Amino acid sequence: MPYQVDKKNCEACGACVDACPNGAIKLKDLAAEVNPDLCVDCGSCESICPAGAIKPD
What we know:
Layout: E1 3-5, H1 15-19, E2 25-28, E3 31-34, H2 44-48, E4 54-56
Antiparallel strand pairs: 1-4, 2-3
């Protein structure tokens, strides 16, 4: 189950981009975006997000 970003809460800090081991997250339009084809559900992004904007889909 890929992770999703609540774009209203995302601060576009980039912490999740750096934490993702597969490069599945990019910043786009001032928010993070998860590529579900690359996401391996490791949870690194969810645990590091300071805004709590990333949750399992």
